[in-house]
Amino acid sequence: MSEPMVPLNIAVLTVSDTRTEETDRSGQALVERLTNAGHTLVEKRIVPDDVYRIRAVVANWIAEADVQVVITTGGTGFTGRDSTPEAISVLLDKRIEGFGERFRQLSGEEIGSSTIQSRCLGGLANATVVFCLPGSTGACRTGWDGILAEQLDSRHKPCNFANLVIPGRGQHG
């Protein structure tokens, strides 16, 4: 990779009724990975498992010109108040179908058939790429290390999502 990586501006949202900044290991794992990769953390927040509060935060971020990527963690399962996919899917202009498929493939190697309970999703919304990961720290590591690290690297070939959100590029490669 001879060309320099173009750092992206990334916002991280933890969806949880119980986590605080001190106990949010999943959100912190994402922040560590994205900053270690050379990207910029624009904002990190925690909101309860509430479809409208999740949607409001993400809608505000995708409306901001300086946010190129939104990554959420939590609320993608089937229990009680899990509602991240419902909150986010209505905001998407295009879904990245392969994101959930690839995540479950990688996750299946780690946790077996339990991976089918992950409703993680990805998509494009207002020239912002949005990825929703499960709430476990392991799932965040799997999602970042196995997919997002490459797809958010402007040098990754043959294509990546970074070049879709970098102003003036608007293409895959």
Automatic annotation (TrEMBL):
Keywords: Molybdenum cofactor biosynthesis. Belongs to the MoaB/Mog family. It comes from the Bacteria. The lineage of its organism: Bacteria, Pseudomonadati, Pseudomonadota, Gammaproteobacteria, Oceanospirillales. One of its GO terms (biological process) is Mo-molybdopterin cofactor biosynthetic process. May be involved in the biosynthesis of molybdopterin. It comes from Vreelandella titanicae. PANTHER family: MOLYBDENUM COFACTOR BIOSYNTHESIS PROTEIN B. This is Molybdenum cofactor biosynthesis protein B. The keyword rRNA-binding does not apply. Pathway: Cofactor biosynthesis; molybdopterin biosynthesis. CDD domains: MogA_MoaB. SUPFAM superfamilies: Molybdenum cofactor biosynthesis proteins.
